[in-house]
Every structure is written in structure tokens, then in C-alpha cells.
Amino acid sequence: VLVDEQQMIHSLSPRYKLLLLGAGDVARYVAELALVMDYEVTLCDPRPAYLDNWHVEGVHLSTELPDDLVRDGFSDPYSGIIALAHDPRVDDMALMEALKTPAFYIGAMGSDRTSANRRERLPELGLSEEEINRLHAPIGFQIGSKTPAEIAIAILAEVTAVRHGLKA
Question: In this predicted model, what pLDDT tens digit does every residue of 55-111 receive, in sequence order?
Fold first, then answer.
């Protein structure tokens, strides 16, 4: 904030960051939009072949196990975790860890049926009902989105609402 011509006050707070799980078209659009919105973005896919042709400048790429990555770098109130892999071996392990953290947003892509099945599996991984209720699934605002770009807009609209304390 500029006080006068000789003084400026600069306030620093942690940068919000998003962990995207699964390298697909929706993740690409979410990453591009999130960068424009000034998020630090990391894409995690432990399946290296999925990352071979995946590049968005400014996005950190990781082949770590997703639950380790959540635990080591995305377990604070400035973190959002978005599961987009459509693979329970990737998504559920990260969600299991993420739902135990104070991350400001935790969401998983999938149909109503997929989301219901996931909610049935998560207690088997040791999660409480309270923890599971933090999960946004199906992910994103319902805007009738069909294309990967439209889905990304719906996801980031919901992430933004939650970040600003609005009910999503």
C-alpha cells in the first residue's frame, strides 16, 4: 500500500496453493486459470507416462505418492487439494491425508454415483464422518459445464467461494 511518495507498506501473507491430482485435460485448464488467479500450482500424478506430454509453464510437476505430497507440503490453511485423476489409487490416498488437514478446500471430480461410492469407501480408510463432510464432491458449481474448460471454471468458482468464506 502506498502511503505517500516516500513510504510504502508491503504486507506479506502466504501465497495460496493448489495441488491438482491427475494429469488430464481438466487439470490443464484448472492449472492455467489458477495461475492467472495467482495460485501456486502443483500437479501430481504418480503415473509418469501421464506427465510425458503435460506442460503448463509455472506449474510444478511431481510423481510423488499423493498422500506424501499432501502431508509434506499441502497440509495448511492456504492449501487446496483437487482430485481429478478418476483413479481411486491416486485420488483416495490423497483425500485420506487431505481430509485430516486444515486445507481450505478439498474436492474430488466425479459423478453423483462416483462421489457416493467414494464417500462409502472413505470410512474404511479411517476417516470420520466430520472429516468426510469436508469433501466437496461432485466438485465445482453446477453451471451445466460440459467441456474441460467449462468444468475448470466451475471448479475454480467453487474454490474461490470457499476461500472467501462463502458456502459452496
Answer: 899 999 999 999 999 999 999 999 999 999 989 889 999 999 999 999 999 999 999
Distance CA 22, CA 92 (A): 12
For 40-63, the pLDDT digits (tens) are: 999 999 999 999 988 899 999 999
Q: How far apart are the first and last CA of the chain?
A: 31
The grid coordinates listed for 87 are 483413479
Which run of H or E residues covers position 22?
Answer: none
Query: Residue 120 and residue 140: Cα distance in Å, rounded?
Result: 20
Global pTM value: 0.90
Between strands 105-108 and 79-83, the pairing is parallel
Where do the domains of the chain lie, and which CATH numbers do they carry?
Answer: 15-163 (3.40.50.720)
Residue 75 grid coordinates = 497440509
Preceding amide of 77 cis, omega within 30: no
